[in-house]
What does this fold into?
Amino acid sequence: MSFTKLLVPTFTQMLNAMSGWISKAELQLNESESKNLMSARLASDMFPLSTQVRFACVQAYEAVSRLKKEEFTEVRNALLEEGRNAADQPGTISDAQVRISQTITMLNALSETELDTETQSSLVHELPDGMTFDLTAEQYVRDWVIPQFYFHTMAAYAILRHEKIEVGKADYVAHMFQYVRPRT
It folds into this structure.
């Protein structure tokens, strides 16, 4: 299994989609509404939109570092800190777009096999609360990275819908239109 060929397109197509949703929101909202959008959340105990965007980006950075067996980058660390503090400092739509763009640029700079490691190689995944998972690279990608990435991506999409932003399924799966048969 090529983790690079699985993760890079998955991350980039959905990050591009998220960027598109946020662009649509910016066009649909007045200045005051745009300013408040990044603080929007679905429930009081959930992270706001600004955190969902940043944590989706964090998943991409963490996967790259873990699969390459390297230390986390300063960009990843900054994203994580920004996300954790987003309730007090949500940032702007423009800030979110910059973070998405930086993440896509990082992903596009990877070689075609840069994340490819033995599927059964061991990987330790520690959470901030001290919980530690012992996984193979395959388990990490399948059971953590992809679900976590989509969790934050889908939460961002749901927040935008909740805030009455006119985005729909076609915006969520915009990458699929490259596969449409002609005349269908």
